[in-house]
Amino acid sequence: MAQDPRDIAVWALVDRDGHVTRRLEQLLERDRPSPQDEALARELALGTCRRRQSIQALLRAYMDQPDRRLPGTMNEILAVGVYQLVFLDRIPDHAAVNEAVAQAVRHRHKRQSGLVNGVLRTIARKVGEPTDGPPPLTREAVPVAPDRYRVADRPVFPDPQEDPAGYLAAAHSLPSALARRWIKQLGSLRVAAEVAAHASARAPLTLRVNALAAGGDAGEAVGSVLKSLREDGFEPALHENGISAVLPRSAHLRNIRAFDAGCVQPQDATATAVVDAAAPAPGVRVLDFCAAPGTKTTHLAEKMNRSGTIVAVDVSPDKLRRIEDNCRRMGHTNVTTMLAEQVGSLDPESFDLVLVDAPCTNTGVLARRSEARWRFAEPALKRSAADQVELLAMALRFVAPGGRLVYSTCSIEPEENDAVVQRFVRRAGGFTLVDEKLTLPAGATDPTRWHDGGYYAVLCKA
């Protein structure tokens, strides 16, 4: 018998290593809930993970003994209950409270069921109804979306004037180190709050259209995909980039016929722009580092009209299988895969284009990677930047004279972006920076304008 979706969410959140998404997938695979229950379990687990800091601030504001240690899964049960009450609209308050109380009993916390009932009912009464508009920077206003907030009857967050980083971390659920650096590098608390609100929003599903499989020119292919999505029961829209379809709410790919047919690939507009900037011509030879799951690889193959050669590289057979599966599904036959440990067997200076889509801290895609924010730390950022410089140093060996090296991340931190490129150019010599772009995450109030944050640089070899 399948577990209740709230139990699935709680057991995913209990993962002490912070791999909530991985644990959630394991539980869903094991229990095989209905599509509706699966969607609810995902929303509760990933949403609660994203909003963890804000939920803890609410609990501290409304618990008589906020520092009291609770047994077993009680912290997660309370967190999931608060998430339903404050950050979701479609679950009635009484249902959220009653289900949390029943869950406490199921998890053998009957003695604490009264605490669950009392705390959640208090929050339901004392935190106001949603108000439309940008959340004000006050201690009582609880941001629930970039354009929506609730007002509590008491201070919930640190004072934004006296402790702007503490406020940003609590109100928008960020680690303190990231809150401090965003305020500094973005210039103000207000701008940092706009980026942070995007980081906690529900990301739409953006589907890049593969015109080679969908048929016709780009416009006809996109039109065909939009029609197919509507026939599948979705409400798609055309992204402003003109080559992607957007589903405002997430959907399982197995329910999308266009995905099975190879006509679409999930890819955010910022990632799509990296391949556009790389501009691979038909017939060229491309080396794609850190290629799994093949999102940019398949885009490169499409722009090359499936001619030329792409060697897609990653660190494990499992990652290579994911690339191969996507290429097979989308009909791209000009891609071969290679383990990173074998790259030394390739001829030096033998590729017209080398793409390095570097591992990073993911600070531009926190809306899509719920737990990534909780892994952010300054030492990890320094290690990441050092690894990126070394990865570029390895990649440069394979760029042919007159060829291009494209570097990209899904980070918005300078240390991982332009600072890495500047260090590389100084150390390597012979490369000229011809284009670079930093994109801040934006568009959370309009799915057709949504884009993640990220960076790319295009370098040309003499």
For this entry, give a set of tags.
about 450 residues, alpha/beta, N-utilizing Substance Protein B Homolog, Chain A, Alpha-Beta Plaits, 4 domains, 7-stranded mixed β-sheet, about 15% strand, globular
Task: Explain the overall architecture.
- The protein starts with a helix and ends with a strand.
- It folds into 4 domains: 5-126, N-utilizing Substance Protein B Homolog, Chain A, CATH 1.10.940.10; 132-199, no CATH class; 205-266, Sun protein, domain 3 (Alpha-Beta Plaits); 276-461, 3-Layer(aba) Sandwich (Rossmann fold).
- α1 (5-13) runs parallel beside α3, α2 (20-31) packs antiparallel against α3 and α5 (74-87) runs antiparallel to α6 (93-106).
- By secondary structure, it is α/β, with parallel strands linked by helices.
- α16 (317-330) links the parallel β9 and β10.
- It has a 7-stranded mixed sheet with strand order 10-9-8-11-12-14-13, sandwiched between helices. Strands 5-6-4-7 form a 4-stranded antiparallel sheet.
- It has 18 helices and 14 strands.
What's the short version?
The protein is of the alpha/beta class. The protein has helices spanning 5-13, 20-31, 35-50, 52-62, 74-87, 93-106, 113-126, 164-171, 176-186, 189-199, 211-214, 218-231, 257-260, 269-278, 295-303, 317-330, 378-395, 418-428; strands at 131-132, 141-145, 148-151, 205-209, 237-238, 244-247, 264-266, 285-289, 309-314, 335-339, 351-357, 399-409, 431-439, 454-461. It folds into 4 domains: 5-126, N-utilizing Substance Protein B Homolog, Chain A (Orthogonal Bundle); 132-199, no CATH class; 205-266, Alpha-Beta Plaits (2-Layer Sandwich), CATH 3.30.70.1170; 276-461, Vaccinia Virus protein VP39 (Rossmann fold, 3-Layer(aba) Sandwich), CATH 3.40.50.150.
